[in-house]
Amino acid sequence: MIRTTQNTFKVTSEARGVISGDGVELSFGYWLGRGKSVIGIHGLTASYLNFIGIAERLNGRRPLFALDLRGRGNSDKPEAPYGMAQHAKDVAAAMKTLGLERCVIVGHSMGAFVATALAAQNPELVGGVIMIDGGYVPDLPVGVDPDQMLDATLAHRIGQLRQTYESRECYRDFWRNQPSFSQEEWNPWFESFFDYEVGDVEENGSMRVKPKASDAGVRVDVAEAFKTDEITGRLKSLRVPTMLLRAEYGMVSGQPPFFPDAVMDAFRKNVPGMKEEVLSGTTHYTIVLGESGASRVADLISEFADSCEESGSSVTV
């Protein structure tokens, strides 16, 4: 919905639809705005509603188009293929259908890896890249088995994806009581995000809800986090303005961040000239769905997109 006044408009909800990806149908959300669209790419088990807070705080300064990646949300869930290159192909297909090109691509968490893959595969579609708490993984310590690390990483999340819950309200309450979300940070954006994350299923004759994300897709995509040569190769190939936004904390307030200062020198060597900002008080979740995080990210997206257009998306070297 759009509310208009004589000189301004305010976006109050998104348009929803389905669009073709690379051989699959993808659900999307689109928030209207002025100028060239920004493309939002969500994380591992999330959905396009990952960007609901950012879109509302953009407040029409830019249109925002965000997809449910294959295997997530209401998009198709094939057995295969998955991986960053495949997700990038899907995003590229959707952008081409809509005639979108030279856009700022905003990726959160795993979405940042997809954003760099898109820039490498379809540079004509990308005018700039913003990575939010994602996009780089340091080398594993010597002696660490990648397969064992993968199994440990997946065990807890896959278990959650296979659980059922009595209702959407119960699912919301489950997350609301997790240490990742303080009562002060909880807001209607989180409620919309978690309501959409689950779908109705029948279990033992009763209707319950279950997370929509595909086990198979999640496993393949997490495995790609250990392909450091591919990850760094894509980062080094970036030839557009690039920005990294880091949360101050990890999954929980007070926890070490995903990108501590100790790993940043290696990250910067792969993307010389990258702009950076640490968003004070945010976690990996609240940097996009918390009030202060979403508001600051929206401002930075608007400023970054303007600067990309003013500079003609000059090469970052």
Structural class estimated from helices and strands? alpha/beta
Helix content: 25-40%
What is the 3D form? globular
Low-confidence stretches: 313-317
Beta-strand proportion:
15-25%
- The number of helical segments is 11
Number of strands: 12
For the termini, the CA-CA separation is: 41 Å
CATH level 4 superfamily: Alpha/Beta hydrolase fold, catalytic domain
What CATH architecture would you give? 3-Layer(aba) Sandwich
Brief sketch in words of this structure:
With 317 residues, the chain is α/β, with parallel strands linked by helices. It has eleven helices and twelve strands. 39% of the residues lie in helices and 20% in strands.
Written account of the structure:
This protein is an alpha/beta fold and 317 residues long. It has one domain (2-141, 228-311): Rossmann fold (3-Layer(aba) Sandwich). Helix content is 39%, strand content 20%. The chain has helices at 52-58, 84-98, 110-121, 146-162, 168-176, 188-197, 215-223, 228-236, 261-270, 286-289, 291-311, and strands spanning 2-4, 9-11, 15-20, 25-31, 38-41, 64-67, 103-108, 126-132, 198-203, 206-211, 242-247, 275-279. Strands 3-4-6-5-7-8-11-12 form an eight-stranded mixed β-sheet, sandwiched between helices. Helix 1 crosses helix 11 (291-311), helix 2 (84-98) crosses helix 3 (110-121) and helix 4 runs antiparallel to helix 7. The longest helix has 21 residues, at 291-311. The model is unreliable at 313-317 (pLDDT under 50).
